Fold this sequence. Notes:
Blueprint: E1 5-7, H1 10-19, E2 24-26, H2 27-35
Amino acid sequence: MNDRHGAQSFSCQTHLAGANRTPVSHWIEIVDEALA
């Protein structure tokens, strides 16, 4: 399992990514990868 944060919105994703070294993905990207 990948260590990363899930964000609710793209603005939240940008904010979290700027403050952290852990990858941040939009929640829909995480769901898309899980279903692929």
